[in-house]
Structures are given as structure tokens and as C-alpha cells.
Amino acid sequence: MKWLDIKKAGTLAAALLLSTASFAQDKVTDSIAALDSDKVAVTDSVTVAVKDYRSGWGKLIPKYIKVQYAGSMGFMSLGGGYDYGVNRQWETDIFFGFLPHYSTAKNKITLTLKQNYIPWKTDINDRFMIELLTTGLYINTIFDDEFWISEPDKYPNGYYSFSTRIRFNAFVGQRLTYKLKPESHKFLKSVTAFYEVSTNDVYVLSAFNNSYLKPKDYLVLSLGVKLQMF
Predict the structure, then answer these.
(1) Is 23 exposed, middle or buried (0-12, 13-18, 19+ CB in 10 A)?
(2) What is the C-alpha separation between 16 and 119, in angstroms, rounded?
(3) Which residues does residue 179 pair with via DSSP β-bridges, in sequence order?
């Protein structure tokens, strides 16, 4: 074979080798880019999933905390709840109350489920807001064997026409809210003081059946504080 043919063959082989290497490099680069893209997509998907998971569990965190004195819920009650609606006019609370031993030998714990409705909210200025009317219903129970849902056999049939363990209540009240500055209180948005006047099913029946009873005998005044977090 002539030297010129060998040179041409070598040049052609080198060109083919360089072309193949360049093609392979492009393929490797494209594969790496695809892997990086897939990695980013997977990372984004995981991030979204984690956010959805956190937001799902976050919905279970109460939006506020309440402390309430009296109200046929116990001497003091502590609870939390959720507000919702267009103007957050609805609230659902759950309370655990403490009832010291007055006429019985031991302390007691109460549980209350409460539904509130606030039809109007009026801003006095940029810091204060008043809720001229709050109203709602709540049901509560007491954890003690001395109280019962169904009438025990030891009493004559129909002796008690109501349960001593469960009470149904209704209330009206008012609130005054102080809005905190976001930059000064990271985890607290506002503080609300409120009062409520309530009654329950037994008190209402007693008032109808006993004309000598006065409002102070069947109406209960309670005071409370609400700490808005979210």
C-alpha cells in the first residue's frame, strides 16, 4: 500500500474516531441533563408532597386558644378551636374544664363542645375591633360516676326527666379584640376579652315551672380570653 493511501486511511479513521467521540460526548451530556432534569422534577414533587403533608396536618392545629371562667363548663376551662367562613363568623371550640369539689368529695373534669356565631365585626380603629353580638350553642358533660345519662334503676320510672351528665346550653355575649403588630408578635395575632350570658335545658325548665325564680337563678355569667394565633 502506498504511503499516500495509508495517510488518507489514517486521516479518515481519525475523523471517524473524533466524530464518534463527539457524538458519544453529546449523548452523555444529554443523558446527564436528562438525569438532572428528572432529579429536579423528583425533588420538586417531593417538596410539594411534603408541603401538602404539612398543610394537611397543619389544619388540625387550633387557630386560637381560649380560657373561660364559669359558664356551666367548670370553674375554669381551657380549650382551642377553629374559625371559618367568609368573615370567620363561625367558630367551633372544644374545652376541658376543672370543677373543684364543693359539694362532693373529689374534683371533676368536664368536656365541652361549643359552636359560636359572630354576625358582625366592627373596627373601632386599626388596633381595636368590637363584636357587638356573639351567640351559640354548646353541649357539655362531666366525667364522674355520680352522674348518668340514663336514669338508674334505683329511681322510680320517670323520676328524673333529664340526664345529669349531659347539659345543652345556649348563650349570647360580646367581645373586644386588640390586634397586635405582626413585627412584634410572631405567633400571636390578637387578644380578645369576652363575656357571655348562658343558660341550659334544666335551668329553662325550672324557670318555666317555677315563676318565683329570678334571672340570676337561671342565667350564668362567664368571662374569657381568646388568643388568636392563625
Answers:
(1) exposed
(2) 82
(3) 190
pLDDT of residue 1 exceeding 50, the answer is no
The pLDDT, as a whole number, for residue 97 is 96
> What is the per-residue DSSP string for the chain?
--HHHHHHHHHHHHHHHHHHHHHHHHHHHHHHHHHHHHHHHHHHHHHHHHHHHHHHHHTTS-SEEEEEE-SSS-SEEEEEEEEESTTS-EEEEEEEEEE--SSSSS-EEEEEEEEEE----EESSSSEEEEEEEEEEEEEEEE-TTS-SSPPTTSPTTS--S-SSEEEEEEEEEEEEEEPPTTT-SS--EEEEEEEEEEEHHHHHHHHH-TT--HHHH-EEEEEEEEE--
- In this prediction, residue 222 has a pLDDT band, given cuts at 50, 70 and 90, of very high
- Burial of 76 from C-beta contacts in 10 A (0-12 / 13-18 / 19+): middle
Which cell goes with 141?
358533660
Q: What is the pLDDT of residue 92?
A: 98
Q: What type of residue is 119? A: P
Q: Which of 161, 167, 170, 164 is CA-nearest to residue 220?
A: 170
d(CA 69, CA 79): 12
Q: Could you tell me the pTM of the whole model? A: 0.72
Looking only at the bridges linking them, the beta strands covering 90-99 and 122-123 are: unpaired
Q: Does residue 64 register a pLDDT over 70?
A: yes
Confidence grade of residue 28 (pLDDT, cut at 50, 70, 90): very low
Phi (first) and psi of residue 207, to 5 degrees: -65, -40
